[in-house]
Design a protein that fits this description.
The chain is α+β, with helices and mostly antiparallel strands. The protein has a single domain (about 5-150), classed as Pnp Oxidase, Chain A, CATH 2.30.110. The protein is about 20% helix and about 40% strand. It contains four helices and eight strands, in the order H-E-E-E-H-E-E-H-H-E-E-E. It has helices spanning about 5-10, 50-55, 95-105, 110-115; strands spanning about 15-20, 25-35, 40-45, 60-65, 80-90, 120-135, 140-145, 150. A six-stranded antiparallel β-barrel has the order 1-2-3-6-5-4. Strand 1 (about 15-20) and strand 2 form a beta hairpin. The longest helix is centred in the middle third of the chain and has 13 residues, at about 95-105. The mean pLDDT is about 90.
């Protein structure tokens, strides 16, 4: 079965859906790193999506094929994850490991500069449910022990 990490390898950013204090959804994006279990984002407290996840620690994460690469606008490849969000302290050993991976994936100098800004924080998005669609009739659930594998859909929604 195909792993989520293989599918996410082609993406550099994730579209985030968070809930605002007014109850309405808010969409934004952030660069991300995926470690085969969780999606990590490093974002500023000033950003609306950071304030939203600090208040309501849940988010949707959408990875979608670039329009220019899709042969059919109605059938773009996409992966959508519903996630619980946790703050990762700079004192946590996970912080350094993940940030080293951010430096490897992106401009290391930029990541180092952002790490020096104390309003930037690391958050882990743990998938609790997900779907992947690769065209008409080719849809999967995200499942497996670590919520990181494609699972053939059986007709039920699977949504929690």
């Amino acid at each position: 079965m195909q792993k989520l990490s293989e599918l996410l390898a082609e993406y550099q950013s994730v579209v985030l859906g968070t809930q605002g204090s007014n109850g309405y959804p808010f969409s934004s994006y952030a660069p991300f790193y995926y470690d085969d279990e969780q999606v990590y984002i490093f974002i500023s407290n000033i950003a609306t999506h950071a304030k939203n996840i600090q208040t309501t620690p849940q988010a949707s994460a959408l990875f979608i094929e670039d329009e220019s690469k899709s042969e059919n606008i109605f059938a773009r490849k996409r992966i959508s994850l519903q996630c619980d969000v946790t703050f990762v302290s700079r004192d946590d050993e996970t912080f350094n490991t993940v940030m080293e991976n951010f430096q490897d994936k992106f401009d290391a100098n930029m990541v180092t500069m952002l790490m020096g800004m104390k309003d930037f924080n690391l958050y882990a998005l743990k998938p609790i449910y997900g779907e992947a669609t690769f065209g008409f009739g080719e849809a999967y659930h995200i499942g497996g022990e670590k919520m990181n594998e494609l699972v053939t859909r059986t007709g039920d929604s699977g949504h929690k």
